[in-house]
Amino acid sequence: MDVKNNLHNNKSNPRKLNLLYLGLLLFVTLLTTLYLASSKAIFAFSDWTFHAARVEEIYLNLKSGSFFTFIAARTFHNTGAASFLFYPYIFFYPWAFLRFILSPVNAFYAGYALVTFATATISYFSMKAYSKKSLASFIFSLVYTFAPYRLYLGGAVFGEYLAVTFLPLLFLGIYEVLWGDKKKWYLLAISGALVAYAHILSVFLSLEFAVILFIIKLITSRGISKDRIKSLLLSAGVCVFLVLPVIVPFFTDFIGQGLSSAKPSISYTMGPRYLLLNSFSAQKGWKLSFMLMLTILTAWAFIKSRRNWIIYGLGLFACFLTTRYFPWKLTAGTPFEMVQLTARYLSYASLFLTILFALGSSSVLEEHVTGRKNLALSCSLAVFMALFSLSSLSVYRDTLKNVQDMPKTSANSTQPAPFKRLRDYNYYNQFNYKILFGAFDYMPKSSLTSVQKQNSLLMHQAYLNGKTLTLSPLIKANQISYQVKSEKAADVDLPVIAYKHTTVSVNGQKHAFRRGNRGTVVVSLKRGQNTVTVGYKASPVFYLSIVISILSWLALLIYLVKFKAKYAQ
User: Fold this and answer.
1) CB 520 within 8 A of CB 543
2) First-to-last CA distance in the chain?
3) Distance in angstroms (rounded) separating the CA atoms of residues 352 and 355
4) Phi (first) and psi of residue 280, to 5 degrees
5) What's the pTM?
6) What share of residues in the chain are helix, strand, coil (percent, to 5)?
7) Whole-angstrom Cα distance, residue 218 to residue 225?
8) What is the pLDDT of residues 187-244, one digit of tens each?
């Protein structure tokens, strides 16, 4: 049988067809990544310094033999900030491991390629399970993976960027539970867990659309069966067990501890005109691609099924949420303010609209292109998307050529990290600057009441006997030590944040402490030279949650193996 002549016949050589499409997706991934990596530089903008510091902490802890990271002892100006406790970081381990074999810049781009290809692969097979059409799945994967907004996220906004990888699988899971094969409830459990391990806020955003779909199900089907309710509850329950290590720290260390989090507010919305016109420009950014904008304008003409009308409505609603015409002021004081940037809804608009674009365009192409031309068509689509993505990324490359290298600064600088260029030789300069966004996330609210308090932490200032001391920390994994000499017995207020499970030792002996007015560790010292060590010891409940989570993943894997064998029969 000629594979070329039967390229889009899903029943003939489906594995070869999948391999062909995955190969083309890999080609676009490598081409776009190499285009960026050939610059041998990174533009440190937006959330870059926040996440780069987290990866650096993980890498250095791994290097010293510690797998877990709880507090920022080596980065974040050695403040002991616990962003690792409350902001998932498991998907940063590949990037950190790549640091052992590659230079800092190359390690980032290698990780970028891994995430991009993972997104393309998950998108392809998710759409394949939904549509049962290979060409539509290939087009969906291309357009979704290399969407301008996702390319923008890949430059610095890494939590959201990672979450976008799993959104197609998540909404496939929602579809299966509500409309499709309810026995595939595990897709929702797994994808929900993966999104939670990437970006907590994306869980909240996804829940908004899940609730909308649930309401639509109730209306269009005039209710929902008990079996589907059971599948929904089962997927939610299993998901909770899978993500226990993410949930537990909030109960053990955050609730009731007077800690801050990312500031809830709607700080930016777009106008429809901006969204429309910007989507026809070449560069990546807060926009849809021109293909999806054309889908908005024309899809109503060829949509025939109720299911596609629902998808179209969700895509339009997601676009509406990005604009100032949605009454965001009414959300003041509600959990919806956690969104912060309404552009986040572009990921969901891209997801829904790309489904329609892929279904519509593949139907037209399959009708007019047959036989040997199918292979040429698939390759042409891959080349087109590669060129489209390179065009989008060219502005980023131009920025790298024109922006200045990030200069050196003092180790305890209070200057915010500038949007500058990083190369291998100046990569470490960024860690001496104050992190631009997120430097004080998850710190006690009392430490944020004045700029003076914040700066005192960044400058390693301690207070002893009414005097201000600038101390030099001695660092180990999850541990910060200071040498403090006192002429008499006194309290010392160290520039390290105190959490519920913070530990303190003085001269090697466990020692009591209290939280000062900066939210920092205050210790009573005896006269003379003292070595004060501040660390963090996770609750036994946290380690128990890891065990339960691992067992849950293993149990789910065993279930899937048995389910697949039974399903095949």
Assistant:
1) no
2) 27
3) 5
4) -100, 5
5) 0.94
6) 60, 10, 30
7) 10
8) 999 999 999 999 999 999 999 999 999 999 999 999 999 999 999 999 999 999 999 9
